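Request: When convenient, would you put together a sequence paired with its structure tokens?
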Amino acid sequence: MNELTPQLIVDGAVPLHSVISPDGRWVAYTVAAITREEQHPSSALWVAATDGSSPPRKLTEGRARDSNPRWAPDSASLFFESDRLTRGTAQLHRIPVDGGQARALTTWRSGIRDHLPLADGRRVAVMAEDPPSDEDERRKAERDDAKVWGQQVPYGRLRLLELDTGRSRVVDGLGDRHVVEVTQRPDGGPLAVLSRPTPELDPVSPTFELHVVDPETMKIQNLGQGALEASSPTWWSTDGSWHLCYLATTPPGPVGGRAVFDLAVPENDAAQEHHNLTSGMAMCPSGLAQVADGPPLALFADGLDTAIHRLDPGTRRFQPMSRLKGYAASLTAGRSGEAVAVLASTAYEPRNVHAGPPAGRLARLSDTRPELREIRWGTQERLSYHARDGLDLDGLLILPVGRSREDGPFPLITLVHGGPYARYADQFLLGTSPSAQWLATAGYAIFLPNPRGGEGHGHAFAAAVAGAVGTQEWTDITSGIDLLIADGIADPDRLGIGGWSHGGFMAAWAVGQTSRFKAAVMGAGISHWGMLVATGEWGIWDAGLGGSCGWEAAGPHRHDQLSPISYASKISTPVLILHGEDDTNVPVGQSTYFHRALRRFGVEHEFVVYPREGHSILERNHQLDVLRRTRAWFDRWLSTPAV
């Protein structure tokens, strides 16, 4: 067995963007490095036989960022995006699957954002920004670069590119709207287009609209506003009529579980009711897959596992087809729906491409991290327990490497997931912020709770944190810790807590509520919800969690009650604060505020800011630092007491 090192964790690759061919015979996917050593990351395209009859083949060298593969309708070639012509600017390329060189199809100054090959084989729908005008270039050269909200990010327009001539036509009828996603009807008919008012995600009044575009006449049919965070428009037909379904947050929002909404596509612009097809389900849809000859398939987060369902056209309800142990994402289906592919991971197997029949066993096709098979891992167990109010909860426990329950009690580190609309599935947990299995190699037991507010248990479970973060969500976590102490697994005198993003918020919240934790790690966490509404990307989503914005009236405000900064004077636990300097999701001011409060009250802490990093830490040396510094911090405060 080999030793697990920080270098082994970060110096690997992961599969992304898996997509199955229309004939169901092949799966194409991207393989990208976990870490980034240069300014512009690189990735390669691979292709594998769905039935596993031949080993995966590397299609591109990976010297540039080759990504987002999409199949030609005849399954003989792949379209993809690459910045090989100009680093940092993606252009549309095409490559034969049976071998040959990739050919650039666009050389547009602004590059492209996304693409969709059309069923006629002659055109590709391309989403691209308007090129800068001569006036724009002049102002840039003269440093006349005032930023006007709603104008500083170029709009993504929908263009139809003719492959024979290289000419493109802009779909003008969408007006001044930013195109987000496009899907073609499986019979080669019109396009479903999802748009929003501005390229920037509006943090105050986010709206998404659905449109139908005839690619021949360019006629636009407006279907009106979709639900919040609409995505994945998917066509299907029943009784001779066409429908569109899509994923979105369940009303009233913005906090709540994801749902599948459906509407009949009318002959004109008449408004249609959007029906929630997943209402009342105790699981959460995470993906949709369009098929040509039947209703759509859907992927569901179901507790610690994942399930594939198919829509029943008669009842308009999703029916189970198969259950996948652990985590799965990125569901994609062939034209007939007889073969599907996902990115999947189980407790001791990292994420890889899997494929097979939707109602049968999916076989692993890729093998991106074979070197990890030589590592000994901490035993990962499923947990099931009850909240204080009796609500059923689940989570995971990872024991120290080479130890069993009988060897306890152990120092316990609780790692809270982000979101809060996320979850711990029973998957391989070797990340960098912070890493469960990495800490288990140092002798720690790791508790990974799924408190209310997360994904996998339906809308009501997810919506329970609306205006209430840190309340029952917090006691859900402490109930699990108390259970592990009672079972003799956790040492009550050596408890630590940490997390990233919302997990960072929960770590900051925890140390203001109790002194039972001897160390905490706050990674890119929230210290004040009102300030996050003012400066973060998500606006009303954050207000939905914190309970208020601050502009409603004179305080006190609900978000003050739910902000860790309000309890800073009570903190005695040593805190390690980690944050990316260029984070726009949770700006670094959140950690700066917390750091200043801890200084004011003389609390032992360390404040680390990573230059050039956003909400996720991507540079290799920074990832190594997070791994080493996190473990060293817990070692410092949770070391074995002297006998």
In short: The chain has eleven helices and 36 strands. Residues 91 and 111 are 5 Å apart (CA to CA). The radius of gyration is 25 Å.
